[in-house]
Structures are given as structure tokens and as C-alpha cells.
Design a protein that fits this description.
- By secondary structure, this protein is α/β, with parallel strands linked by helices.
- The chain folds into two domains: 10-206, Alanine racemase (TIM Barrel), CATH 3.20.20; 218-338, Lyase, Ornithine Decarboxylase, Chain A, domain 1.
- It has helices at residues 10-22, 33-37, 41-50, 61-71, 88-94, 103-112, 160-173, 185-188, 312-319, 323-329; strands at 5-8, 27-28, 30-31, 55-58, 76-79, 97-100, 119-121, 147-148, 180-181, 198-199, 218-230, 235-236, 242-243, 248-253, 270-273, 276-279, 289-292, 302-306, 335-338.
- A seven-stranded parallel beta sheet has the order 3-4-5-6-7-8-9. Strands 1, 11, 14, 17, 18 and 19 form a six-stranded mixed beta sheet that branches. Strands 2-10 form a two-stranded parallel ribbon.
- Strand 5 (76-79), helix 5 and strand 6 form a beta-alpha-beta unit.
- Helix 3 packs across helix 4 (61-71).
Length: 339
């Protein structure tokens, strides 16, 4: 028995892609970094490519290798981290395309791989990656596939930083006759002014905030290993941190913080069986979680953590984080099922 079953709804993902495509007239690429946000990049990129995606975005050159092996030579694969020292041969061998983020990377590309297609990222205010406005001259864009930047506050539509970054992007690129890209999922939702020639959705494909019109893509079911009755006054788990105040039925399930159900969710996380909530009791350990199933009439074979009763964003809220982290933390021990 595995530690759980992560079911990916292929039609829901396709529907999310088509909804995002309809929101703009731009080309829609897809961000598939971090193992396609934890869902399994090999299967996800095949599905996206079959539905018209031709540009894929990853974080590192090693992630690009997986995409190229899966899809062959046809798609364009862009690497956000750019062309790092020692990576040039791998870029050439894979025909992957660096997104160059600095004068150093631009010089490296010019001297080591001039014939390799590339894109450029400019920094419009996020101060993370990108050629700065002090270093930027339009001649640097010669030969680039496109120019991109990234919005810092797009998931907050009223944040003035969005307009500030948009204006800076326009200022730095206005004289260029070259495709431009500014928006990931949240930027797409800001409207046409932010779309330009290419959009790069990530979390919206996989059913997460801020794309409220997205369909749920992921369901996570954890098998029950053992059930037992706990009497009043008995303790559960490491540190004896939970003391039963009454007689209870406890299920021990096959997952833990090694599988992305983080330890800080101890006593807070809720699992579900047929819509009935069952709260975690005691500390979440590496491989095991104890759950109060006293409300259930029958002992379940599985408990659901993400699904119809609880979305990835609801899990993120009780975890005090974001859906991106929840998805990308889902462990490799889960069996991924594509339906």
C-alpha cells in the first residue's frame, strides 16, 4: 500500500487551460516547473501539448530535460533561471532556451552560445530577477524571442504596484518591435492591458487562487492503516500532546510531513469521509497521522484531504500559506492517478 493516492482530473486541467486562453487574445504558454506544481510533469506536459500549448516554462535546466525527453523536439522550453555557469552545453544539447536575467548572463550567452535562441527578463520593480533599468538598453534585445517581466502583486488587483510595474514595462520596451510577456495567472486576470503577446499561467491551470473560475484538478486520499478505540485520559502520539477527554475512535493513516502534510497542521488539519469532517489529533509525524473518526458510522478505508470538501486553497489557509506551496509539497510517495 502506498502513502496515498493523488488523483489528477485531466478534463478539469484542460478546461482551466481553455478558460485562461479565452481571457486573452495572446498566445498562452504553460508554467510546469516543480514537477508541474507537484502533479507530475511528464503526464501534465503531454496533456497540455495535446491541447495546443507550444511554449513551456521551467525553473531549471534539469527540469527542461524532463520536458524534452517527454515531448521531443517540437515545443519551446524556456528556463527562468537563465544560463548559469556550466550549463551552456546542456542548453545546447537540449535545445532549451534561457531567459537571460543579467548583463553577466547576456555576455555568457553571447560568448558561449550565440546561435541558441533566448529570451530576456527585465526587472520592473520586483527586485528578484531581471536586467535592471540602469543596465537596460534596447540593443540588448536584439535577437530575443521575447522580453518578459514578472508582477509582484498581481493577486491583489487594487495594489498600485501593478500599474507602476506595467508603466515601467511599457517604458523599457516601447521602442522594441519584439513580442512581450508580463502576466502569469494573476496578471491575466488584471485585464487586457497586462496581456501583451504571451501569457504564462501556472497555478490557474492546476485549480488554485486567484483564478476563482478554475475547476478543481487535484484530489488526495490517504489510506487508513489501523483503527482503535481510545479511552478517556489516554494520550496519542509523540509528546503525549493530545489527551482524550472522552472515549474516541482513532484512525492512523499512511501519510505525514514527509508527504507534504506539514507538522504545524497538528490539531488543525481536517480530513473528510463522505463529507463528514474528521480532525487530526496528536502530532503529525513523518509517516503517520492520527485522526478522530468517532463521528463516522463505519470504519473507512481512506480519508480525503484535498477534494470536494476541501480545496488546495482551504488547506493553504489553515496552513497559513498559499496553494502553490501545498501543491508543490505533495510528496513523491503518493501514487499519481490521471483520470
Amino acid at each position: 500500500m502506498c502513502s496515498g493516492y493523488l488523483t489528477i482530473n485531466k478534463q478539469a486541467l484542460i478546461n482551466n487551460l481553455k478558460k485562461l486562453q479565452r481571457l486573452s487574445t495572446s498566445e498562452t504558454g504553460s508554467v510546469v516547473k516543480a514537477n508541474a506544481y507537484g502533479l507530475g510533469s511528464k503526464e501534465i506536459v503531454k496533456l497540455l501539448a495535446t491541447n495546443g500549448v507550444r511554449k513551456f516554462f521551467v525553473a531549471t535546466i534539469n527540469e527542461a530535460e524532463i520536458i524534452r525527453e517527454t515531448l521531443g523536439k517540437s515545443p519551446e522550453i524556456y528556463v527562468f533561471s537563465g544560463q548559469l555557469e556550466g550549463d551552456t552545453k546542456k542548453f545546447i544539447d537540449l535545445e532549451a532556451r534561457p531567459i537571460l536575467n543579467s548583463i553577466v548572463q547576456l555576455n555568457r550567452h553571447h560568448s558561449q552560445s550565440r546561435e541558441l535562441p533566448f529570451a530576456i527578463q527585465i526587472d520592473t520593480g520586483m527586485n528578484r530577477l531581471g536586467v535592471t533599468s540602469n543596465d537596460w538598453v534596447k540593443e540588448l534585445a536584439t535577437g530575443a524571442d521575447f522580453i518578459m517581466s514578472h508582477l509582484a502583486c498581481a493577486d491583489e488587483p487594487s495594489n498600485l504596484e501593478n500599474k507602476k510595474q506595467l508603466n515601467k514595462f511599457l517604458q523599457m520596451t516601447s521602442e522594441l518591435n519584439i513580442p512581450r510577456s508580463l502576466s502569469a495567472t494573476a496578471g491575466i486576470l488584471l485585464g487586457n492591458d497586462y496581456h501583451f503577446d504571451l501569457t504564462r499561467p501556472g497555478i490557474g491551470l492546476y485549480g488554485g487562487f486567484p483564478f476563482s473560475d478554475s475547476e478543481h484538478v487535484v484530489s488526495l486520499d490517504i489510506p487508513v492503516i489501523q483503527t482503535k478505540v481510545i479511552n478517556k485520559g489516554e494520550s496519542i502520539g509523540y509528546g503525549a500532546s493530545f489527551i482524550a477527554q472522552k472515549k474516541m475512535t482513532i484512525a492512523t493513516i499512511s501519510a505525514g510531513y514527509a508527504d507534504g502534510i506539514i507538522r504545524s497542521l497538528s490539531k488543525k488539519a481536517i480530513f473528510y469521509h463522505e463529507g463528514i469532517p474528521c480532525r487530526v489529533v496528536g502530532r503529525i509525524s513523518m509517516d503517520l497521522i492520527t485522526v478522530d473518526i468517532s463521528k463516522l458510522e463505519n470504519e473507512p478505508n481512506y480519508l480525503n484531504f484535498i477534494g470536494p470538501s476541501q480545496s488546495i486553497d482551504q488547506v493553504a489557509e489553515i496552513s497559513n500559506t498559499i496553494g502553490h506551496e501545498i501543491l508543490t509539497s505533495l510528496g513523491n510517495r503518493y501514487s499519481r492517478i490521471y483520470k
